[in-house]
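Weekend entry, working from home. Most of the wet-lab plans are on hold until the incubator is repaired, so I used the time to fold the two sequences that have been sitting in the queue since the last round of cloning. Logging both here for the record. First:
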Amino acid sequence: QVQLVESGGGLVQPGGSLRLSCAASGSIFGINAMDWGRQAPGKQRELVASIYSDGNTNYADSVKGRFTISRDNAKNTVYLQMNSLKPEDTAVYYCSYRRFGIDGTRHYWGQGTQVTVSS
């Protein structure tokens, strides 16, 4: 089992910045990825950024150049630095952990943290 706890959400004005953190505990090992997803009211959850255990990263087009994902493997923590925030970035942001194995992929989600971008 893996437990994920997000922090760092809040209210920010357009153009501002926020840094989200997610601490993972439990069975963290092997080939894996840590992600940030978000879900706005009335919309499906979308993956916005991923970082793999080899350090490779992926971003959704909507956040490229504005968001940066990073991880501290010693602390089992993943971060999302969000700059130049827009009202359309408003959503609940979820941390996720995926472990890839010969028996398939195990996927865990945190409880989420609210990010509101508004003046």
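Second, folded right after the first finished:
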Amino acid sequence: QVQLVESGGGSVQAGGSLRLSCVVSGRTSSINSMAWFRQAPGKEREFVARIPWSGGVVYHADSVKGRFTISRDNAKNTVYLQMSSLKPEDTAIYYCAAQYGTVAGYNYWGQGTQVTVSS
């Protein structure tokens, strides 16, 4: 199994930038994919971006495409979400998730980090 710890959240004005980090520990060899999700108050959890753990095509949700970039540094066992041109509607708790083993979907989650964008 694996453990995920996010950091990097905070408060920023619209148009600003933040970089979220997700440090992964444990049996990383069994990870297939990593992703970022977010959940705003009163809303359902929303997919943001995903990246294969061993390399390959990344995917970003339309709502963040061109503004957010997911990346990884396997040497540091860390996945990043670079967020630019932030909007108030990006305000949410951001979660890192791992697709581990043969289970379909993301089965390991971090505790989340709050991102607040003010207008």
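Plan for Monday: verify the second prediction. The two ends are 40 Å apart (CA to CA).
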